[in-house]
Design a protein that fits this description.
Layout: H1 10-17, H2 20-31, H3 35-48, H4 53-81, H5 86-116, H6 124-129
Helix pairs in contact: 2-3, 3-4, 4-5
Length: 130
């Protein structure tokens, strides 16, 4: 049996011919009110684009903020109804876990930076800096 020729994806074709400015506008428009889309954009771009340490650090902060923005409506729903269905509870738990992982990894990186500079958590100055 012969394979049917695969139909071309019209969206893929449009993206191929679009200018970078148009693609940037599209992504910004899609992500402005959708923290889940914004977070996915950060995740995708971080794995496909080489960036400076400063931009990588800022994007990690943006991801945590996007996770929180994604979480806020579910927290409001849980608060309004004194609980919620299991799916909402599971979604909230998953997002809080992702935030915890990101904050823990940032904390560990900051601590490694302190150790690299010879400071320890035992001194008053290093406690404030680390």
């Amino acid at each position: 049996m012969a394979k049917k020729p695969k139909k071309s994806d019209a969206l893929a074709e449009l993206l191929t011919v679009a200018s970078s400015k148009v693609l940037i506008d599209l992504i910004l428009q899609l992500s402005v009110d959708r923290p889940d889309i914004r977070r996915e954009c950060f995740e995708f771009l971080k794995t496909h684009v080489s960036v400076s340490k400063e931009l990588k650090k800022r994007s990690e902060g943006e991801i945590v903020l996007a996770l929180w923005s994604e979480l806020a409506p579910d927290l409001d729903e849980l608060d309004d109804y004194g609980g919620g269905d299991y799916a909402t509870g599971n979604h909230v738990a998953e997002l809080l876990y992702q935030i915890q992982i990101r904050l823990d990894s940032k904390s560990a990186l900051a601590h490694e930076g302190c150790l690299a500079h010879g400071t320890t958590k035992n001194s008053y100055v290093s406690q404030r800096a680390c």
